[in-house]
Write a structure and sequence with these properties.
The protein is built from 6 helices and no strands. With 130 residues, the protein is mainly α. The two termini are 23 Å apart.
């Protein structure tokens, strides 16, 4: 779940370190990718998902590379949405809402006024921070 401060990503990433969750039935057109690519390399993908959640959470929480964190959050939530096989409006999943929140963070000036992105921008005016 995408929290306003990114703490949900950190908690989800930490929880995945301790527990391996099984995905429910995925979308039919996504299933060959899961079976042919993800399952044979499950430990690699598990590590990538854990790292992605932790990076997204830390970047959104600290306000550094906020837009990069939002892109990671969008990619993760799109993957979760497809892997669950539920419609985006399903009450059992808030992935679509998290995608909308991450797109909002990406398109707005998130991290430009508060957070480490703002501090870095003040130190070096004219330099573009991610």
């Amino acid at each position: 779940m995408l929290e306003a401060d990114g703490s949900g990503w950190i908690l989800d990433g930490a929880a995945r370190l301790l527990e391996r969750r099984r995905a429910s039935e995925c979308l039919p057109w996504y299933k060959p990718f899961i079976q042919g690519v993800v399952v044979p390399h499950i430990s690699l993908f598990a590590t990538l998902i854990i790292a992605g959640e932790l990076v997204a959470g830390v970047t959104l929480l600290l306000g550094i590379a906020t837009r990069a964190g939002a892109i990671i959050a969008i990619a993760l939530n799109c993957n979760y949405l497809m892997a669950k096989g539920l419609p985006p409006w399903a009450p059992a999943s808030n992935d679509a809402a998290d995608i909308i929140l991450a797109v909002t963070v990406l398109l707005c000036s998130a991290g430009r006024y508060y957070g480490l992105d703002a501090i870095l921008a003040k130190r070096g005016p004219g330099r573009r921070v991610v």
